[in-house]
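Researcher: Structure for this, please.
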Amino acid sequence: MQTLEPLEEPQDYAVSDVVVTEPGVIRRAIGAAAVGNVTEWYDFGVYAYFEPTIKEVFFDGLSDAAGTIATFGLFAVAFLVRPFGGMFFGPLADRIGRNKVLAITMVLMALGTFAIGCIPSESSIGIFAPLLLLVARLVQGFSTGGEYGNAMTFIAEYAPDRKRGFWGSWLEFGTFTGYLFGAIMVTVADAVLTHDQLVSWGWRIPFFIGLPLGLVGVYLRTKLADTPAYLALEKESEQREKENKTGGELRKILQLWPFMLVCMGLVLVWNVTNYMLTSYMPTYVTDTLPDDGAVSSSTSQVIQIVVMALALLTIPFLGMLSDKVGRKPVCWVGAIGLVVLGLPMIALVRSQTTVGVFAGLLIMALLLICFSSTMPSTLPTLFPTQVRGGALSIAFNVSISLFAGTTSVVVGALVSATGDLNWPGYYLVAAGLIGIVSVAFLAEPNGRKMWGSPPAAATKEEAKEIVRALRKRLPKRPGKGPKDGPATA
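Model: Predicted structure, C-alpha cell format:
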C-alpha cells in the first residue's frame, strides 16, 4: 500500500538554513500551548464527573435515561460548531500568527467555562437554564475549534525534527493534567459537601475556577511573544497576511483531500477512545451497569483518577520512544489493540469488581496514549506550512464533530435502545479498524522536517548532522555541488 508523501521537491539545505531553537525557548512554547489544553480538559473533566448533578440541576423534569441523553447531548452539541471554529481560527492563524489566535481562543474558553457556573437552575428560570447552558457550550465549542489544531501546529513548528515526538507529547500531558484536575475537584466536592449543597451551589465552584486558569494561560502566551524565535515567526505570518486570502487558502486545503482523510481517520480512532474513557465510562460504570454488585460512585472516581494519572506519567516516555522507533509502530499497537481488546476490556469493566473495572479502564487508557503521545507530532506533518493551521484545524474538528465528540451520546443511546451493554466494545473495535487503515496510508514522520519548512534542530551540531543526512538523499546531478559547501561549515 502506497503511503502519502509530502508533495515537495528535495532541497539542498545549508547549515545556515536550519532553524536552531534552544531548549529553554521550546519549553516555554510547550508550556504556553499546553495550558490551553489544561483549561479545556479541566472543564471537560468537571462536566463529565458532574453529569449526574448537571442532569439534576438542568433536566430535573426528565426521566433518568432522557436526562442522561440530554446532558450528554448538550455536551456533544458543542462539537457541532467546532468545525466552524476551525474554519475561522485555523486560516486566521496562518495569516496573523499562531500565538494571537491561541490567546483569543484561551479567553473564549475561560469565559464559557465561567459562564456555566453562573447559570441559574431549571427550577429558577425554567427552560432558559438549559438554553443558557447550550449557549455557553457553543462558545466553548467554537473556541476549542481553533485551539487544539493551532496548539499542535504551534508546538510542532517549535520542536526539533529529531525530538518532535517527545516535545509534542507534552501537549497531551496538559490534556490529562486538566482532566485530572477537574476530576479531583469534583471528587473533593462530592466528599465534603452534602447532596443539597452540591445541587444548590457546590457544583458551580469548579466552573468558576476556569476563569483564573484561562487568565494564567493568556499571560503565558503573551509572554512567549517576547522570544526572538517567535518574533521571527510572527513577522513571517504578518507578511503572509498581506499575500494570502482565506478563499485561496481553502482551495489549497481542499486539494489536499487525501491527507485530510488520513488526518480525520487518525483523529477518529484517537478521540473515540479518548471520549469513551473520559466521558462515557464514568457514567457507564456508575449509572448504566446494573446496581447489583456495582462499584460505588466514589470508588469509580478514584479508579478513573488513578488510571488517568498512570497514563499521564507514561505519555512523555512513549513520545520519547516514538522518536527512536517511529510514530507508526506505536500507532499500530494502539489501533490493533482496540480491535483485539475492545470487547475484553469492556467485559472486565462489566465484571463490576474493583480489580476488573481498574484493569479494563487501564487497558483502554494504555491504548489511548499510543495515540495521545504520537498524534500531536504526527498530524501537523501531513500539511504544508502555508496552510497547516487551517488544514489541520478543519480536518481535526470535522472528525471530532461527526464521530468522536458524539461518542457518549451515540453509545448511550445505542445501549439504551438495545439493552446491549457491549456497545462500547463494538464502537472501539470499529474505531480500531478505521485506525488501522489510516496508519497504513501514513508516511512515517519521525525525524523528517516539517512539510514546507526548513529543517529544525536543537543545537548547531545537530543541524550539521541533519544537513549531511539530507544531502545523502538528494538525487545526484552532474556538475552540481552542495549549496554552501560542506555541512561542517
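Researcher: Any notable elements?
Model: Confidence is low (pLDDT under 50) at residues 226-233. The beta strands are 19-20, 456-457.
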